[in-house]
């Protein structure tokens, strides 16, 4: 069994990368489930019902979010239907939506949880402790799933590494998102959990984290301040492919995948 996790989809360029590469990746690797981080899918900030449906049509089995979950407020309409959207688990208890989803993948029950880190994280909502929350979640729900994937949407590398070790042996995959820069540390931890500090984004890498250089310059104090604008030039997909040991429900292999116009490609199609 194989699971593909695609990093933060940033605007139209990110959606184009999924359209361009997912069919060939499915043919080559024959993965059984697709998880996509969609918190930047709508013009770089948030997601809309239309784009949510677009990602589902492209094959997303679960869509995770992040600190921009509610930047497009009509996202609340999605949670009024059957959906596969996952907002951060450590949002306040009465927040609309769910912090996890459980789906059937073959004979296995796959649980996808998202957590927000608290170090240097700008968020509109008050966050509870992600380390305590995931431990409580596992204790409460461990009999409801076979495979656990945790999307840890965090700014600092240390916080992500600590979460990986905390969940080693309990999760199939702990995958870092949010910084939009792929890290070169994908590996299997001592007790069988696949880990990467940041999977990177799906989007335009001739940008600043998916936004145009000009808008980024203005926000860092160079020139007149202008609104953030997503870059739309080149499309690169960043993902990780995890192979599951179906006897232990842990990882046998993790493989970073980079395909597109800017970064060095790691697979041939």
Instruction: Sketch the major β-sheet.
Output: 6 strands, mixed
- Quaternary class: single chain
Order of adjacent strands in the largest pleated sheet? 5-4-3-1-13-14
Extended strand count: 14
Order of helices and strands: EEHEHEEEEHEHEEEEHEE
Low-pLDDT stretches are none
Helix fraction by DSSP (H/I, runs of at least 4):
10-25%
What gap, in angstroms, lies between the N and C termini?
20 Å
Brief overview, please?
With 269 residues, the protein is an alpha/beta fold. It has helices at residues 11-29, 49-57, 130-141, 157-167, 213-219, and strands at residues 2-6, 8-9, 33-37, 62-64, 85-86, 100-105, 108-116, 147-153, 173-177, 187-188, 194-196, 201-202, 236-245, 250-260.
Which features characterize this protein?
6-stranded mixed beta sheet; globular
Explain this structure:
This protein is of the alpha/beta class and 269 residues long. The protein is 22% helix and 27% strand. It has 5 helices and 14 strands. The chain has helices at residues 11-29, 49-57, 130-141, 157-167, 213-219, and strands spanning 2-6, 8-9, 33-37, 62-64, 85-86, 100-105, 108-116, 147-153, 173-177, 187-188, 194-196, 201-202, 236-245, 250-260. Strands 5-4-3-1-13-14 form a 6-stranded mixed sheet. The chain has a 6-stranded mixed sheet with strand order 6-7-8-9-11-10, with helices on one face. It has a two-stranded parallel ribbon with strand order 2-12. It is globular and about 55 Å long. The model has no long low-confidence stretch (mean pLDDT 95).
Strand-helix topology:
Layout: E1 2-6, E2 8-9, H1 11-29, E3 33-37, H2 49-57, E4 62-64, E5 85-86, E6 100-105, E7 108-116, H3 130-141, E8 147-153, H4 157-167, E9 173-177, E10 187-188, E11 194-196, E12 201-202, H5 213-219, E13 236-245, E14 250-260
Parallel strand pairs: 1-3, 2-12, 3-4, 4-5, 7-8, 8-9, 9-11
Antiparallel strand pairs: 1-13, 6-7, 10-11, 13-14
